[in-house]
Every structure is written in C-alpha cells, then in structure tokens.
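Technical annex B. To support the medicinal chemistry partners, we prepared a structural model of the target in complex with zinc ion, based solely on the information shown next.
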Amino acid sequence: MGRGQRFQCARTEMQSPDDAMPETENSFENVMNPPEVVAVETERVSCDGGGGALGHPRVWYEMGDEDFVECGYCDRRFVRKGSPADPGA
Ligand SMILES: [Zn+2]
C-alpha cells in the first residue's frame, strides 16, 4: 500500500512541467501562421495569387502522392479536402 501511494505522489509532481506546455504550443502556432489555406477536391489546382497587386502568372500544381501543395509564388497552401492536411476537415 505504502509503495502505491508514493508512486501517485511522483506522478502528481510530474504534471507541473506539463501544465506550462499548452501556452508554449499556442505561441508557436501563432508564429507559424500560414498565409492562406485553400481546400480543394481535385489534386490538380491552379493559382494566380487571387489577382490584383498580389497576383502572379497562373500556374498549375499537382499534389501527386501528397495531400497538399504550396504555391511557389504566393505561399498559398492547397490541401486535399477531407485529408489530414485539411484544417477544416
Ligand atoms: Zn499562388
């Protein structure tokens, strides 16, 4: 019995460092905020930057085996709808 209680004590102590972790993860996520994510249903996508000042020549991308592809011009990320890469899935 005595040994079991000591084990519980040790586990409680170890939770202290864990409590600080969610805060760290949140700030990390804010820094990594991607420009834009577009969910698409086809693996072949085209991007022209949305036109206007941010626009660029229309380019086509194919995801192939991946669930997402990033535009080399405007850093937009196209994700396959419903895939693990889709934040809205
Ligand atoms: Zn683009």
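Notes passed to the chemistry partners:
The mean pLDDT is 77.
The beta strands are 37-40, 44-47, 59-62, 68-70, 77-80.
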